[in-house]
Amino acid sequence: MFVSSCLLQYIGLSFPLLAAGGAACWELHKREWRCMKWRKMADHVQGLAQLEILCKQLYETTDTSVRHQAEKALLEFTNSPDCLSKCQLLLERGSSSYSQLLAATCLSKLVSRTSNPLPLEQRIDIRNYVLNYLATRPKLAAFVTQALIQLYARITKLGWFDCQKDDYVFRNVIADVTRFLQDSVEHCIIGVTILSQLTNEINQADTTHPLTKHRKIASSFRDSSLFDIFTLSCNLLKQASGKNLNLNDESQHGLLMQLLKLSYNCLNYDFIGTSTDESSDDLCTVQIPTSWRSAFLDSSTLQLFFNLYHSIPPSLSPLVLSCLVQIASVRRSLFNNAERAKFLSHLVDGVKRILANPQCLPDPNNYHEFCRLLARLKSNYQLGELVKVENYPEVIRLIANFTVTSLQHWEFAPNSVHYLLSLWQRLAASVPYVKATEPHLLETYTPEVTKAYITSRLESVHVILRDGLEDPLDDAGLVQQQLDQLSTIGRCEYEKTCALLVQLFDQAAQSYQELLQSTNSSSADVTVQEGRLTWLVYIIGAVIGGRVSFASTDEQDAMDGELVCRVLQLMNLTDSRLAQAGNERLELAMLSFFEQFRKIYIGDQVQKSSKLYRRLSEVLGLNDETMVLSVFIGKIITNLKYWGQCEPITSKTLQLLNDLSLGYSSVRKLVKLSAVQFMLNNHTSEHFSFLGVNNQSNLSDMRCRTTFYTALGRLLMVDLGEDEDQFEQFMLPLTAAFETVAQMLSTNTFNEQEAKRTLVGLVRDLRGIAFAFNAKTSFMMLFDWIYPSYLPVLQRAVELWYHDPACTTPVLKLMAELVHNRSQRLQFDVSSPNGILLFRETSKMITTYGNRILTLGEVPKDQVYGVKLKGVSVCFAMLKAVLSGNYVNFGVFRLYGDDALDNALQTFIKLLLSIPHSDLLDYPKLSQSFYSLLEVLTQDHMNFIASLEPHVVMYILSSISEGLTALDTMVCTGCCSSLDHIVTFLFKQLSRSTKKRATPMASDDRFLHIMQQHPEMIQQMLSTVLNIIIFEDCRNQWSMSRPLLGLILLNEKYFADLRNSIVNSQPPEKQQAMHLCFENLMEGIERNLLTKNRDRFTQNLSVFRREVNDSMKNSTYGVNSNDMMS
């Protein structure tokens, strides 16, 4: 029991009884309590003072070492066997709030643990004790009250399906708080907070318990309690608003705030288990259940929140607006057309009222939530519905004025502008589709919004420079997001947008040119004009990128031509000054413009008769796409020449080159340009400074070299064919670099930093070339060039610098690329041993790196991925690529006594065992490389898996079991495939042993023995797979079905028990239907794993899953709370 009677008597406390549950718990003479010994109790009391001292040290001291010691001691206290009784003593006798907080926190950990959980009786006692404690101490410190409420919510959630005498003892949540709500304001606040926290707790998945169990609890709570809680919160808000609360009173203010939070938590509930990212605002639909219709058909609910907004202080208004945002987002299908029109009319009226009385909107939080509310008007309703609202003309005028004013005050709440632009973007995008006869008036207001955005950005430049403010242009993500929205808004009434941009650009460009020619112009004035031009170039790129082919006219293409001509003329002016000075932001804007221009007007799908090209020909003499491409390449070369030390410009420039090299027709035109031939023949640091070695500040800055050589590799391949001389000529700079590194490493005294930089740059270059060479002829040239001459240099580098991931990771990635048989490029002649020789080199590198990296010992958690796991992940990917490449016959290694294969596989096992299970799933790249490698091993090298030691086999099976429930579908699918191969192998071994055929290999026999010794592992995976198929949103059902049949055939008795457990967990009236579902699942299934039998089982499983889901709908029953997979 949670508390002993003698301890209660000693403390001398009695509690007022709140509810039936509490009364039953606290009538101690009706319950059997275990008495503590007085001596033990005295020890508890003696230790109380020490615990309080530790709490103060933890929360109050500024001495880090003291705090660390206190934290360590309290951690030991949390894990001690008598923690439960000591927590109660702290709550009853503790003199500080910190000791009460510690007790509440420790109790939360105790009730949350999955291993050795507390008995039901004890959890009921704790729940009732917490309620009584809160009721008798309404004025605890706020953080203590919050921690105790959190404890109550956690106990209630985890015990939601627990029964005592056919009663779900943890579900009477409204009854639990009723007495709180009938008492003082302080008690009311506690009661409302309990409901609010409970709703929030049940809505949030927790990583320590299965997602399936969370969804069952959340669905049951939704169906049984949530609407009652929402109705209660609305009724209490109505009562509060009708009583003229004194909101200067702190407690009444707090009560109203908690009621609004409760309403918001109800409306923000994850009704259908979409598990969306909380930081995402993209899913704008609230999936309100049909049973809630009455609350939304009644306009008084909507009216309640609009009235509250106008009657309460601005400090509480954001919560009201948050609730309105959710109400405005109610799913469309909740209403029929007439009901939706009526609801929308009330909603728009409320918005109009706020816009007409904007006194609260200067508050940034209010403003932000109101912008979100406006955005929801279009995300959930069609333009055709909005225009039919009675006050639409007035409302759209008010919204346009509000938007223009907001954009003009650019420095106020910049993060809220996204929602306003989102509204106008959606409105503008809908114009071609609207069929209503009523005018939408967007042709009037959209140009005003576009103009306000453009002019406000230009006007901000001077103010930002004058006052030293943070420049929005430095936030590339925010700028790109706004430009994407403006691209659609600006294309509406495009003639007006173009005319404005031409006018503003001409003014800014003329002023800029005059300033440059003037001898007495200040640098500040030049910087202002460059800032204005930067915004204009970004915006021109955006509106060109907003072109939609089916909705564009020749006239609009001609307007695009006008804009492009101006940007190219500006580029010529700025490039001519780069030797003296340049502006990084303006160059980045240029690159953004080129990227948008490339997407729309360069490529295979573009009509070459476009009016844009005609205008370019008239103004700049650019007659066709080839000449335009020469401008692109000229700009790329100029940037690489002058901006080689500026990483943002270099990387974006190289990305543009890479994108151009991907087009089928454009790459063939590019190769004919003299500038491209210059790059192919002169890719050295002399011409491109970013390829230099000594001037690099960081090894990671060399990443862009891979992009550069990928593009060069594609360009080279166009005309390369079988011309080995041309290839050798291209590789000369890299040959020289390799020779330099080889010479350095062959001596004992060399400049280590220089050697590292040269090597890292070289392997990044080669990886780009290897990636681009996806044809056999060209790739074989590269292979013959690098092997056997230069691979020993890479091996030596790994031996020397295995502890430096900045050096070894690029080397390992190059090797992984070289062994990757992409597009079947690795095809050796039948007389060539190169496939085997390449695997030997791969094995040597994996073994060298693996054995050395394991000597590092314990690596700090925050460094473990960069120092160790990243390299291990690349090794796994390398091994997977070479094992599945189909260019090596691995049988020859054992046949001829070559240990290369065994060395690689044994190193894999050593590396694997050095990684905790949690890390395998915590790091996505590691998990993907490991599980894909495991899939190949179980498919083609099962004899190796079968020969492993029992603890290794169990580790691998455990990793598969955990991977089956991974959120990454690719990982989950790989685990299903691996499990299928293992189960099939086991089934075949068992079949052979029963048929008394030739004695199996000793390793196979041992594997079979391990599985027979640990049947629980396979059984656990059977229940996991079945659980996912029945209860979860199974996105890879086919993959899940493949191992399931083998699991069932290997565990027929366990499957029968599992089936009976699931059937018996259903309501009596549904048990027969569930039993029939299982019967149909195995109908026509034979006891073998032949393909035909598997396919029939997969078909049966699809029908089974559909029928089970239909059967379980509207059932609040679930599998026992201890879940069949927990």
UniProtKB/TrEMBL annotation:
<dbReference type="InterPro" id="IPR001494">
    <property type="entry name" value="Importin-beta_N"/>
</dbReference>
<feature type="domain" description="Importin N-terminal">
    <location>
        <begin position="70"/>
        <end position="136"/>
    </location>
</feature>
<keyword id="KW-0813">Transport</keyword>
<dbReference type="GO" id="GO:0005643">
    <property type="term" value="C:nuclear pore"/>
</dbReference>
<dbReference type="InterPro" id="IPR044189">
    <property type="entry name" value="XPO4/7-like"/>
</dbReference>
<dbReference type="InterPro" id="IPR016024">
    <property type="entry name" value="ARM-type_fold"/>
</dbReference>
<dbReference type="GO" id="GO:0006611">
    <property type="term" value="P:protein export from nucleus"/>
</dbReference>
<comment type="similarity">
    <text>Belongs to the exportin family.</text>
</comment>
<dbReference type="GO" id="GO:0031267">
    <property type="term" value="F:small GTPase binding"/>
</dbReference>
<dbReference type="InterPro" id="IPR057947">
    <property type="entry name" value="TPR_XPO7/RBP17"/>
</dbReference>
<protein>
    <recommendedName>
        <fullName>Importin N-terminal domain-containing protein</fullName>
    </recommendedName>
</protein>
<feature type="signal peptide">
    <location>
        <begin position="1"/>
        <end position="25"/>
    </location>
</feature>
<dbReference type="InterPro" id="IPR011989">
    <property type="entry name" value="ARM-like"/>
</dbReference>
<dbReference type="Pfam" id="PF25795">
    <property type="entry name" value="TPR_XPO7"/>
</dbReference>
<keyword id="KW-0539">Nucleus</keyword>
<keyword id="KW-0963">Cytoplasm</keyword>
<dbReference type="GO" id="GO:0005049">
    <property type="term" value="F:nuclear export signal receptor activity"/>
</dbReference>
<keyword id="KW-0732">Signal</keyword>
<dbReference type="GO" id="GO:0005737">
    <property type="term" value="C:cytoplasm"/>
</dbReference>
<dbReference type="Pfam" id="PF03810">
    <property type="entry name" value="IBN_N"/>
</dbReference>
<keyword id="KW-0653">Protein transport</keyword>
